[in-house]
């Protein structure tokens, strides 16, 4: 069987990305994003991309690099703050944004990965989110029909993987990654640590290797904090003392 391991992010995307593709990318804000794969996506120069994910990075970080390189034509996301380029291009009509409530976006991706073409949700009924969509009443309540989402390529970030592609995510970095790993026709996983088959506890595997086509071990992680918020120290508190 051909190895799933690639030496770097660029080679993992070689021959995979082309103009006009739909790309899903894992992460919540900048937590659990495939940083190296995103930069490799920028280097492909592929244009007119549709990008699906929680957001599009923030200024100078994450998917922002692909956006700033004029490669994205449409975004499906639930949060678009912290990104001045996206704001400017949306307001000028240069880029299309399909806004989704966060839970709805997660379920659309999960549904797409499960082969479910559409589902009904109460979220968004009676708002702009429901405009142009089918609505239906169940047990006296109104629901909006949302469609499942899939992608040509899914980019995900995991903490550990074995050489067969079984993935383990770490804490909140799991976020959208497991759903996105099921919804791509081709899935490329960026990981921090690679182990041999049998070294992962089967009960701790979050994404089975059957979903993963290519693996790359990333490096030089930024661990950037989008907005640092700290507590005001009490007057006279000693340094290093919790207050």
List the helices and strands and how they pair.
Elements: E1 5-6, H1 9-13, E2 22-25, H2 35-44, E3 49-52, H3 64-68, E4 72-77, H4 84-91, E5 96-99, H5 102-113, E6 118-121, E7 135-138, E8 141-147, E9 151-162, E10 167-168, H6 177-182, E11 184-195, E12 214-217
Parallel strand pairs: 1-12, 2-3, 2-9, 3-4, 4-5, 9-11, 11-12
Antiparallel strand pairs: 6-8, 7-8, 9-10
GO molecular function, one term: CoA-transferase activity
Pfam families: CoA_trans
Keywords: Transferase
Query: What is the typical, i.e. mean, pLDDT?
Result: 94
| SSE ordering | EHEHEHEHEHEEEEEHEE
Straight-line distance between termini: 57 Å
Shape: globular
What can be said about the biggest beta sheet? 9 strands, mixed
What is the fold-level CATH name, i.e. the topology? Answer: Glutaconate Coenzyme A-transferase
Unreliable spans are none
CATH 4th-level superfamily: Glutaconate Coenzyme A-transferase
Number of helices: 6
Radius of gyration: 19 Å
């Amino acid at each position: 069987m051909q190895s799933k391991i690639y030496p770097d992010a660029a080679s993992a995307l070689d021959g995979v990305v082309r103009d006009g593709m739909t790309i899903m990318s894992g992460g919540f804000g900048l937590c659990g994003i495939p940083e190296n794969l995103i930069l490799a996506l920028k280097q492909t120069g592929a244009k007119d991309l549709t990008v699906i994910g929680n957001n599009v990075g923030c200024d100078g970080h994450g998917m922002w690099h692909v956006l700033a390189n004029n490669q994205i034509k449409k975004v499906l996301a639930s949060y678009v703050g912290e990104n001045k380029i996206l704001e400017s291009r949306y307001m000028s009509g240069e880029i299309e944004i399909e806004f989704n409530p966060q839970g709805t976006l997660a379920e659309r991706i999960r549904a797409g990965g499960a082969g479910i073409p559409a589902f009904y949700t109460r979220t968004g009924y009676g708002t702009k989110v429901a405009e142009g969509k089918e609505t239906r009443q169940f047990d006296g309540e109104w629901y909006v029909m949302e469609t499942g989402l899939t992608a040509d390529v899914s980019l995900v970030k995991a903490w550990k993987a074995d050489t067969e592609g079984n993935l383990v995510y770490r804490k909140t970095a799991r976020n959208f990654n497991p759903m996105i790993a099921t919804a791509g026709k081709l899935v490329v996983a960026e990981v921090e640590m690679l182990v041999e088959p049998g070294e992962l506890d089967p009960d701790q595997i979050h994404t089975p290797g059957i979903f993963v086509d290519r693996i790359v071990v990333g490096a030089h992680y930024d661990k950037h904090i989008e907005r640092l918020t700290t507590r005001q120290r009490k007057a006279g508190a000693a340094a290093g003392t919790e207050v």
